[in-house]
Amino acid sequence: MSMARTLRKLVLGVILDLDGTLLNTDGIVNDILKVHLVKYGKQWDARNAHRIAGKTPLEAAAAVVEDYELPMSPDVFLAEITPTFSEQWCNIKAQPGANRLINHLRGHGVPMALASNSPLENVETKIFYHQGWKESFSAIIGGDEVTNGKPSPDIFLEAARRLNIDPSSCLVIEDSLPGITAGKAAGMNVVAVPSIPKHSHLYTSADEVINSLLDLQLEKWSLPAFQDWVEGTLPINPWHIGGPVIKGFGRGSKVLGIPTANISTEGYLDLLSEHPSGVYHGWAGLPTRGVFKMVMSIGWNPYFNNAEKTIEPWLLHDFTEDFYGQFSIS
Hints:
The chain has 330 residues and is α/β, with parallel strands linked by helices. Helix content is 26%, strand content 18%. The strands form two sheets. The protein has a six-stranded parallel beta sheet with strand order 3-2-1-4-5-6, with helices on both faces. It has a six-stranded antiparallel beta sheet with strand order 8-7-12-9-10-11, with no helix packed on it. The longest helix has 15 residues, at 74-88. Residues 234-328 form the Riboflavin kinase domain.
């Protein structure tokens, strides 16, 4: 869904979720659950991450205990994993576009609230590691401050109350289905930024679904527009990745008729998690052939139910023969 539905009312304030929306929590969640489930002879499947996304910590723990038939109560499992999570909060990175969005709204005087299903103490600790975030929000609400967490609308209604803005004039930005359900139940406009790959078709109740915060067009919601786009392209800070060219899967480049290359993601999964799926422009270098302009796609292969992103560059050059080996992208 690329266009927002007809606006009902001017947006006067923005309410943001934290985990999965502003913070890239998924990678750390996956790593921690892998470690803890191994203790019980179980293997965490990241493709089931949607079962816990957007839930309160206790609800998420209950889902894991049920799905993996763990020999304990949700309370005991939550108590077991919480210290490990607390140790990792300082390592959670901002989602692509999160700092850009917060700084932009703050710079234009748009009131913002942070509304998370996590306890308030956890929320404040997480944002402590991100400069300027705490002072950017006029209100910060934790799940332990309301009677019912998401998907109940309670937390968003409380955020609107603290902002002193009518709920219908609020824009909610959320990554999870419980959060989207809560925002719509509160009578608010909702933009979905799904954090779980290949589940965007489930977010139809949102007013708009976007790939990442970098794709957010605030002017659709009568808010000040970003001014950093150049002819339909968003400049980003340069980043680099390299590795061996491997034989691909699914639609081969020869079938497509274009010089595409599949790059091994081994050792780069953390780096890829910092960049949204989409199309990138840059340069690709081959040690024995030179440097070429390229367009690169990052995302999930549509032919396989893979949990990790893949990289496929398209070199803007006519090659007379196949090539494999080292590859460098900037």
